[in-house]
Design a protein that fits this description.
By secondary structure, the chain is mostly helical. It has helices at about 5-60, 65-75, 80-110. The protein is about 90% helix and about 0% strand.
Length: about 110
Amino acid sequence: MSPQHPRDSTGRQQLDLALKKQRLLMRSSALRENFGQYANTWKPVFAAADRLRNGLRWLRRHPALPVASLVALAVARPWGMLRWARRGWFAWQALRNLRIALLAKQTRSGGR
């Protein structure tokens, strides 16, 4: 038996690395394709979230429309507006108290 030449060992290592690289590239490609299919199922949800965000941005830039709508409703149905204002006030207070309670609990637990 003849001893292996050092270059044969280096050539084998390069071949092993090239094969490993090829397998990794194939796995990466399969994972990308799988993720792409998975992400397609979420496209409608993300599209709806984008529309909602764009609508809220538009409202912030054009506050006259919601204000005019509220004024028109207040003139047309003052008691209905008062009822909804009261409900909104109570909901706001409940959320505010919940937030305060959660922050207090978080502070007591050391921020965990």
